[in-house]
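Worked Example 4.2. Read the sequence first, then its structure tokens.
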Amino acid sequence: MVYVLPGDRRLAGMTGKPLKGRRLHPIEAFEVTPWRALALFRLGTLVYAIALMARNVGGYDHPYLAWAVIGVMAVWSGLASAGYERAPLRAWPLLLVDVAVTAVCVLASTPVIGPSLHHGAPTLTVAWMACPALAVAVVKGIRWGVAAALLIGGCDMAVRGGISQATFSGTAILIMAAAAVGYLGNIATRAQEQLRQVAAIEAAHAERDRLARSIHDSVLQVLALVQRQGEQIGGRAAELGRLAGEQEVALRTLIAPPTAAGAVPAGMTDLRALVAPLASGRVTVSAPATAVWLPALKASEVFAAIVAATDNVHQHCPQETKVWILIEDEGDRVTATVRDDGPGIPDGRLEEAAAQGRLGVALSIRGRVAELGGAVAINTAPGQGTEVELTVTVAS
């Protein structure tokens, strides 16, 4: 089944546009289903009131007035059902008129039916009188629904000339029904809002994917071409190429599909998502297509070590030095490699730096990973660049 979700202002259930002849989107279904159910309830109780009156009308003081009241009930049932189908009309004016018409029809039972009403004869409205209380409960909630039920129930007891077990039971049932419908209405409203939010997120993701395809087929390819040509030409064109490369990375990050919030394991962090923003014209990040999960503390410490290794390249290597960050998910462990094409580190330089108190590599990289129970391997040689490999286990 395929649904087409229009904008909120165009939802047929909210604007009163005809809904017949097409399938309802779930959001529309939440809007119109309660009112269609109430419309069926009105029709059913109206038919029951007509049948009961037809059976008893011979004993009424004013039979013709009874048929007039039934006519008012029938006309109002059609108008009210049509009105509640339209969201803008579901407000106090319609609700108050609904309650007033119903109360008048209930009170009309006294002059129409006569003394037999005080001896247990049913009112003209019978169960039809519950309709406005249920409508108020759906629109305004439990409290107002119960208030409407009390008002209608009070009219019913007034026309009977006193409070009996039967009249009290009817009013109590009406109040409980209004409270139950109001409670269900609150649940439906919250569910509808959540569904609306999900639909909005899905629509945003679809638009994001469409833009990503368009950008990938045009803008990203042009930026990549400018970057390559600029590097080949050199001079000021090289700077232009570098800027184009940075914008390409920024766009790729912007249009990358986000990780679904519901798919995040408890206490885990996606290392790939942490490292991705490090990409730039000089730094290339390669990672699996799926999330690389690590315990939150491990992920933050490994990320800090990667940043430290990358900063070392920026600080101690020529500006044109390239950096590659590779993230590998090996199931029970994760390996992060930071490699550059710089001049490399001369033999003994790390030990010399540690002896002089410059402990950047020792503390920022080796120390962090060692505290996580991981391992660090640094491979370097003069003129051959440097490779820093960090390995940690996934288990906490």
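Now turn to a second chain, presented in exactly the same format:
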Amino acid sequence: MTTPRIAVVGAGLIGRKHADLVARHATLCAIVDPDPAAREVAHALDVPHHESLGQCLAADPPDGAVIATPNQLHVPHALACVAEGIPVLVEKPLADTGEAAARLVEAAEAAGVPVLVGHHRRHNPLIAAAKAAIDAGRLGEIVTVDTKFWLYKPDDYFAPAWRRAAGAGPVFINLIHDVDLMRHLVGEIARVTAVQSSRVRGHAVEDTAAVLMEFANGAIGTATVSDTVVAPWSWEFTSAENPAYPNVPATCYAIGGTDASLSIPDLRLYAHTGRRGWWEPMAAEALPVVPQDPLVRQILHFADVIRGVAAPLVSAREGLRTLAVVEAVRRSAATRTPQEV
């Protein structure tokens, strides 16, 4: 197999983005979505349209499938592909509950079928460079981390009722990305203590939350998230990853170690020029990186996994572990007590 044939299941905003990328960097073989508008998407890309995944699998099974359907459909659609031995890339979150995600992980591992999760930021060269520096020991022992997702979502974002309902807030939709990167860069998160508020907008869903994270390796850190703050300190504004967002020369993550600290995404590594001490001179080094679109890299990686020449960078089990942290954050915020992950 030189160029895998990939079907895209779900033709919403992110599904259309995946379809375009697959068409340009692999072989798009079908669009699957019951919405009549999806037929036009398929026609524009000159591929067959199927109203259901079962119809697609019966008519012309693909080599791989991207699952970009609503969260509650991720698991049934992925399980249908796994049953046919078809590798899948599932948009984040892996599932709407940890229990459902675990069912998929167990089925995929038992069948030996690769399941990837769309935590695409891990494919960003910025994150690869940060991880390389951390793994090389340049920061020394990691002591603490700080992450921010602060921005203002406009009022029309909340026009759909589901975005004002519990479970649709920035903890589940946005913080999950930051949690995944901290797990990737620093290590497993063992316990969380969280508080949240819906004071500003008054919706059933939170608009602001703060989390204390305790890592299994002894590091501790904080994560704050709010979609009702006018501020630039978020991955969206600072990374230049998505051209839909204006780019601001600021940072959103800080990782502190006993030898140096690293700010992200500007990749500035701060260290004393001589011996360590608060009166000693400090210099900042910019880590080198060549920017690339992580969504393109993710599709190319998925094609390699389908061909059997690469192992998943973000496996279903990785997606389950990240989801478990977010579920622990929810439990902690609801009970006002620390929660084990």
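Notes for the reader: The chain is about 35% helix and 25% strand. The mean pLDDT is 96.
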